[in-house]
Design brief:
The protein is α/β, with parallel strands linked by helices. The chain has helices spanning 18-27, 43-51, 76-82, 105-122, 134-144, 160-167, 185-193, 223-234, 238-252, and strands spanning 2-7, 30-35, 56-60, 88-97, 126-131, 151-153, 171-175, 199-201. The chain has one domain (2-257): Metal-dependent hydrolases (TIM Barrel). An 8-stranded parallel sheet has the order 1-2-3-4-5-6-7-8.
């Protein structure tokens, strides 16, 4: 069995065929999905999907590029309260994104710190997004004690130094369809080095469909292609890679077992 450790099946991209998407995931032996929150206004839909199936878990959080009025910024207390729902297994996605800074850097850092605090209070792991902000992300994780709840660097596309910095804080590294792209040799080199017991696989659907579907809408069933690529890189058969990454997922997101 495989797990898609990060997808957004609540997005409108799936509104016309969500049932078919879930059926295809099962057919591809994808036995569990983590539907990840990017804002609080859509969180009820994320939670509703998770409540409809034992195969789906949810997170709660606000993406670094979600623009909010200051009065609408979530407090650590609010995030902690929302995370009390048993279907919520993580805080996020959160982090820093300076590539497309729709939200000011200082605001992103303050929001990220509140997510870390909520994760520490709720004892649930973090889902961290970083883009063009690797050093700042790792520094803030260290200063705010993100190692305490732990978590995952989702859709990882950075260098080995960044991976090592996250691993040193007991974080997992999740690989998406990017690792299958022709121009991603540096990322494949990183994927060979990450300890096998710290690897997750994801789609980030509807984005970043792996080869051979690159450029099309991504969906959870396609995580199999990412897993196949990683298995080949590591000199493993797909079953071994699937079993290990699935065990890793449930080790990190222990609430998803219930």
């Amino acid at each position: 069995m495989l797990v898609d450790s990060h997808c957004h099946i609540d997005f409108p991209d799936f509104s016309e065929d969500r049932a078919g998407v879930l059926e295809r995931a099962v057919s591809a032996d994808v036995g569990h999905l983590l539907c990840v929150s990017v804002n609080l206004s859509d969180f009820p839909e994320v939670l509703s999907l998770a409540r409809q199936s034992a195969r789906i878990s949810a997170s709660v959080g606000v993406h670094p590029n979600t623009c909010l009025e200051a009065r609408d910024e979530p407090s650590a207390e609010l995030l902690e309260t929302l995370a009390e729902d048993p279907k919520v297994v993580a805080l996020g996605e959160t982090g820093l994104d300076f590539y497309r800074p729709d939200c000011a850097a200082d605001t992103q850092k303050e929001r990220f710190a509140r997510h870390i605090e909520a994760a520490k209070r709720s004892k649930k792991p973090l889902i961290v997004h970083t883009r063009s902000a690797a050093d700042e992300t790792l520094d803030l994780m260290r200063s705010e004690g993100a190692a305490e709840p732990g978590g995952v660097m989702h859709c990882f596309s950075e260098d080995w130094a960044t991976a090592k910095g996250a691993l040193d804080q007991d974080f997992y590294i999740s690989f998406s369809g990017i690792v299958t792209f022709k121009n991603a040799q540096n990322l494949r080199d990183v994927a060979k080095k990450v300890p096998l017991d710290k690897i997750l696989v994801e789609t980030d659907a509807p984005y970043l469909a792996p080869v051979p579907y690159r450029g099309k809408r991504n969906e959870p069933a396609f995580v199999r292609h990412t897993a196949e690529c990683l298995a080949e890189l590591r000199g493993l058969d797909l079953q071994t890679l699937a079993e290990q990454t699935t065990a890793n997922f449930f080790q990190l997101f222990s609430g998803a077992r219930s």
